[in-house]
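Need tokens for this chain, all 455 residues.
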Amino acid sequence: MMKREINNIIAIVAVAALALAGCSQFQEDDFFEESASLRVQHFNEDLRSRLISQSSDDNNGWVIQYFVSSSFEGFNLFGRFQDNGKVTLASDHRYLRNGNANKYTEASSFYEFLAEEGPVLAFNTWNDVLTVFVDPVDPQYAPATLMSNGEGMSGDQNLVFRGFEGDNILFQGQRHSSKVRFVPCDRSWQDYINDTKATRDYISNGTISSYYVICGADTLFFKNLRSGVITYCERINEPLFPSSINCVFTPNGFYLQNKNEIKGTSFQEFSLTDDKTCLMSENDSVKVMATWDSYIVNTRTTTWNFDQEGFSDEQKNLLSQINTALQGAFNSTFNINSVGMGRGKNVASAIAAPIMYFNYSYVSKGKTSKSSLGISCSMSAPSYGKVKIVFASDAPIDSNMKNFFDRSKNVDVEALVRQFAATFQGTYDIVPDDYFLPTGCELRAVDGSHSYTLN
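Here are the structure tokens for all 455 residues:
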């Protein structure tokens, strides 16, 4: 019993501390000569007026960036506040009940400002959009199963004022310290949802799932951005000291629940740059870039073709000789249609390494057949945004290419193929066609070799 009483006292002191912190935001207001309770009352009236004003027909109400426990992503709610104490909330979040999960839903209820030690915005009646975060049930099995700790998602419906951030209003949950930010909505709610989804799908599309977090010469990493519960670590593979960061997506990027820092430089909100090469923090000092160079060099499984217009005269001549030799050895209709780089996908007897492949076709008995030949190479990243390509003199070839070499008795096709491949050796700057979803790239020579386009 004594332990329970002590815990209750601690909880009361914690709530009082939050309220007093909120109160500090207005102690130097025009009402300084009035009593503390009257100052709270007047400040509540000012906050209430702000909420109602932004909710007028000329405005779009509020985006409520709402965070719960660290196990969940942040959620976008929307709100309009009326002078009669009524509030309309909306969202399409995944914990809406009654078959509305992930569907746009509006629900009306009531709100008030409590006359406590500091300003407190209370959503004091059930609202299908908000109260599910407060309900003490297991969100996966709601509403049938209670959580063993009775906390549910550890959300809050009583929000303590924490300060202003320009036109934004910052709150904190009275019980669980949930972070909540009210942002004036600059478009219709459905447009906000659609635009946010489009941005989320673009910057976290599943093709690339890791990101550089760069501040000057210092680099860390984000993983699992799409989930909204980000792993923040010192390296991508076998990460050192990983920590969890929650975020909510916006039409421009994403906003973190808490401020974080690299080497003393803080960051919390990221927006996509105009050229869409990266996301920049609110102070333009930290950027988040998809690990597109690692994807192109190490993990890309798709195959991209060279634009043959960019081949040198020597390369065009060698390719023509290879094609002619294989026509004589195999089939007069044989034709190399494209040359590309990849990792063996759709290549006969694929080599477990990066390869140069030759896509070809031929006609036999009136039917056109297509396949590929492959020779392996080494692709490495000597530094960020660069790739080094090397073909060893004994680079492995796939079984399909070996079969063609064996048929070519009059011409040393193998020597021609290896000579052709060797002309692509060199170090290149990689310039992707899209920095978050590359479907091709330009290889710009940095050591005097030729430059190429892959698509």
